[in-house]
Design goal:
Largest sheet: 5 strands, antiparallel
CATH class: Alpha Beta
Strand content: 15-25%
CATH topology: 50s Ribosomal Protein L5, Chain: A
CATH architecture: 2-Layer Sandwich
Number of strands: 5
Radius of gyration: 18 Å
Order of helices and strands: HEHEEHEEH
Helix content: 25-40%
Distance between the termini: 34 Å
Strand order of the largest sheet: 2-3-1-5-4
């Protein structure tokens, strides 16, 4: 639904607001990357399988395993050791995920007052963290044995923070108000 709305309604409105002459110059969301760290229970095979299953339920895609590139003794980490799971969403699945995130998941968070404006990087991408996976409607809270956090990065096609913020607001994101 959001994918069709973007090309038909949202992009033309953004074009007018930003004063763009060409529809292709309007900022867009290129991809959404969802990471789940599993370093705390990487030795427990059943917990890793549960995490893979839960991330697959949340995203609708099979997660990719992330391994350590180098050994870090301070973190008790060896090279090629499993440290996380990652899923990259594009096109329709990306828009479906963003719609669920902005309209279902974020309002479920305790004390949610809006997304922080400080989470934009200098390239116009936005990263947010969710402390537990049970806030997603696909996950049954009764069946969660371990609470795992998620990091969600929304990659945009613009380097301007104002354009990126306007893009995410037009997709349904709610940002906290300055006081």
């Amino acid at each position: 639904m959001l994918a069709k709305d973007f090309s038909r309604k949202i992009a033309p409105r953004l074009m007018k607001k930003l004063g763009k002459k060409n529809l292709l110059s309007v900022p867009r969301v290129e991809k959404v990357i969802i990471n789940m760290g599993i370093a705390g229970f990487r030795d427990d095979k059943t917990a890793v399988e549960e995490a893979k299953k839960e991330l697959a339920q949340i995203t609708g895609r099979h997660p990719q395993l992330c391994r350590a590139r180098k050994a870090i003794s301070g973190f008790h980490l060896r090279r090629n050791e499993l440290i996380g799971l990652k899923v990259t969403l594009r096109r329709r699945q990306m828009y479906d995920f963003l719609e669920r995130l902005f309209h279902l998941v974020l309002p479920r968070l305790r004390d949610f007052r809006g997304l922080s404006l400080k989470s934009f990087d200098k390239y116009g991408n936005y990263t947010l963290g969710i402390s537990e996976q049970a806030v997603f409607p696909e996950i049954s809270p009764d069946q969660v044995r371990r609470i795992k956090g998620l990091e969600i990065t929304i990659v945009t096609s613009t380097n301007s923070l104002q354009e990126a913020q306007l893009l995410l607001e037009s997709l349904g994101a709610i940002f906290e108000r300055k006081q």
